[in-house]
Amino acid sequence: MRLKREVAILGATGTVGQRFIQLLQGHPWFEISVLAASERSARKKYREACKWRLETAMPEEIGDMTVVNTNLKEVQQAGDVDFVFSALPGSIAGPIEREFASEYPIVSKASAHRMEGDVPLIIPEVNPEHLQLISIQKKRRGWNGFISTDPNCSTIQLAITLKALMKFGVKKVIVSTMQALSGAGYPGVPSLDIIDNVVPYISGEEEKMENETRKILGTFYGEEIQPANITISASCHRVNVKDGHLEAVYVELEQKPTVEEVKETFREFVGEPQRLKLPTAPERPIIVREETDRPQPRFDRDAGKGMSVVVGRVRRDPIMTIKYLCLGHNTIRGAAGAGILSAELMFKKGLL
Ligand code: NAP
Fold first, then answer.
1. Of all protein residues, whose CA lies closest to atom 39 belonging to ligand 1?
2. Catalytic sites, residue numbers
3. Which of 54, 320, 344, 348 is most buried by its number of CB atoms within 10 A?
4. What is the Cα–Cα distance from 76 to 81, expressed in whole angstroms?
5. If you write DSSP's letter for every residue of 165-214 in order, what string do you get?
């Protein structure tokens, strides 16, 4: 038995793929065995195929690896694989992930399978019980592996804060986002579209936030998820910030807690990753700032090594019940860090 689980990364050259590589350096349970991307990158050394955009240096041994095509046979030939992280574009991920799931567990950042009835959409602190869908999925589809998905980056931070508020009865949510450029991948939004500007539309994002949040906060009934009975309205906008999505959130609650009770609820919120002490779990999933001008992307996105959601300006709302801002690092808590935390939970539960 090998000491660590070997992992292949699909979409390894992209924004999220690079974060996976960075965050997996020195991981106690997982090590990278195969890097896969498009035909454009295949057969090249990783350092030639990838335009590395992170502040930390590309690990030397990763730069030396040869990228392979995102194709089951090529990946199998390239190295030992126990499970797969997928950071492929949603538009092409569907058939590729199904092919890999016939053999391997896949933890996917892509949207292709998120809303399918037998596919878990996991935030480890919020709905770990939804992993029970995996055995149903494997039986139904006849796969040796399975697909588990992580939500959209802007959904994850919202859903974590709403989960904490569920004890007060969440009825309606309005959310308005200010989303970072790295959320659009690389090269992403053309510079002349975003300098001195805000783009008030992100294709498909509002529907994802509304539908995914209801599934994540839904209840597992033995065979399927009953979506939460919450009305959600999202408005999504791209702003001139490198990393870190900021969201203005307005929530109508059944109960009427005080602002202090809401802050205390956020501060005390923990989930299974904290109880299990998973390697990537932040000590505090939600950090509450008291300053009137926080959270801010530049100062708060790295809180909890990018895995904490930072909440601020919690106050009463004259139309809904409560309002606040929340901020999350979109490529860490919203993407690669989320995928790794999900995989750590699955590993602990014997699913990998
Ligand atoms: P990206 O920077 O555009 O990277 C895309 C990756 O997919 C690259 O490695 C690219 O390889 C590969 N790829 C593209 N077309 C391919 C094809 N036809 N066959 C095989 N590989 C192909 O995108 P990203 O921002 O990393 O996003 C990756 C996924 O994560 C998307 O589904 C996105 O929605 C999701 N996501 C992103 C974020 C974020 O903050 N960026 C957050 C949450 C979720 P080449 O370099 O060879 O072209």
1. 183
2. 153, 245
3. 344
4. 7
5. HGGG-EEEEEEEEEB-GGGG-SS-S-HHHHTT--B---TTHHHHHHHHHH
Backbone angles phi, psi at 55, to 5 degrees: -70, -35
Tokens representing 258?
Answer: 């005080």
The preferred substitution site among 19, 109, 123, 155 for testing ligand 1, maximizing ligand atoms within 8 Å of CB, is 109
pLDDT in tens, 102-116: 999 999 999 999 999
The rounded distance, in Å, linking the Cα atoms of 97 and 8 is 12
pLDDT (tens digit, 9 = 90+) per residue, 261-299?
999 999 999 999 999 999 999 999 999 999 999 999 999
C-alpha Rg value of the chain to the nearest Å: 20
Distance in angstroms (rounded) separating the CA atoms of residues 86 and 1: 25
Residue matched to tokens 């919450």: 230
Question: How far does residue 128's CA lie from ligand 1's centre (Å)?
Answer: 26
Q: What is the reported pLDDT for 1?
A: 60
